[in-house]
Amino acid sequence: MGSAKRITPAKIASAIALAWLASSFLYPIYVEVGGSVVKLNGSPELYLIPAFAVWRLRTERDAYQRLRVKVMVGLFFLYWVFIPIFYPRMPLLDGTEAEFTLAVHMVGALPFLILFIMVALVGKRADCGWNCPCVFSRETVGFAFRDATLKGDFWWRWRHLKWLPFAVVWAYFVYMLVDPVHAYERFGRTMYDLILIGYYASFLIIPFTGHRSFCRWACPWAATWGVLNVAGFYKIKADVGRCRECGLCEQNCDMGVPVRRLIREKGVLRTTECMGCGRCVNVCPQGVLSIHDIRDTIRGYNLGSRERLVRMAGGLTVAGLIFLDPGAPWGYLGLAFFATGLFGFCPTYLAVGVVARKARGIFFRQ
């Protein structure tokens, strides 16, 4: 019997939690408490994601994936808990507003624009791999069913299904430009409701299809970011001559990517499906694969690779304040912070270094 068929305590807990997540949208449960009506299954992500993240950290042996889980949990609280406290609603292109947690994936919203830029620079890992609310749930609550992931040429061809919702979403964006006053009421509301129904319903099939099935076959934003994966700076390079065809890269890919065939044909993995989780790169015993993005195209001067990424992501987030509060200086400081990460050069560091060298020359002169 294969491991995907084996029932474990983790899978039982995961199946119950996934059903609870799905019910929060598909079948809300209201109870009366102290004279007030309360949604019993409201926002279950707030406690299920941290709880299952603890389980992930206790069972995950790969150091890189442990780091990834920690970063995901940190970003979950930053972008999906703390920021909405201060900026609960975001303006949209049509003049309306939406909740921050929804606006992140609504075309025409400021958070969506920020993500769009970051994905173009560093690939889908800016959202699908490390920072998407869908990913937070699937990489923690649904992770016990990772071994159920459907792979092979047949399931690989199913990836094209998500181009249909992709076309619908971007047709709506064009509609917003043409008729921003009526676009949401006439089309957008129904479209987003259908996407959310599909999103929450997909939690129920995770035990049979693996934890990333919605991302692979139905998510319009996974398709959008996939276009940027190919058109932008992100790619996984391969030293093909060192490959021993062991197949570990494909076995560990949760998106069902035929890694070996693609690198044999092209010498590089540049596909719309790669979410930048780094599993294939870190599991390869020969060190065949390596991730490349904007930081490899624009070489930094005095900033390290990881600090550049933090500056780009954090700076771009703060730069959004330019649109939310044009009179405040913080947005412009965030834009400058983003620029230092983009080009890998911080003049403040340079000035501090010069002063420090001069101070050493004065106080420690032989």
UniProtKB/TrEMBL annotation:
PROSITE patterns: 4FE4S_FER_1 (PS00198), 4FE4S_FER_2 (PS51379)
Protein name according to UniProt: 4Fe-4S ferredoxin, iron-sulfur binding domain protein
Bilayer-crossing regions: 12-30, 36-55, 67-87, 102-122, 161-178, 190-208, 309-324, 330-356
Source organism superkingdom: Bacteria
InterPro entries for this protein: 4Fe4S_Fe-S-bd, 4Fe4S_Fe_S_CS, Electron_Trans/Redox, YgaP-like_TM
Keywords: 4Fe-4S, Electron transport, Iron, Iron-sulfur, Membrane, Metal-binding, Transmembrane, Transmembrane helix, Transport
Occurrences of domain 4Fe-4S ferredoxin-type (ranges): 234-263, 265-294
Cited Gene3D superfamilies: 3.30.70.20
One annotated Gene Ontology cellular component of this protein: plasma membrane
SUPFAM superfamilies: 4Fe-4S ferredoxins
GO function term, MF aspect, one: metal ion binding
Native source organism of the sequence: Desulforudis audaxviator (strain MP104C)
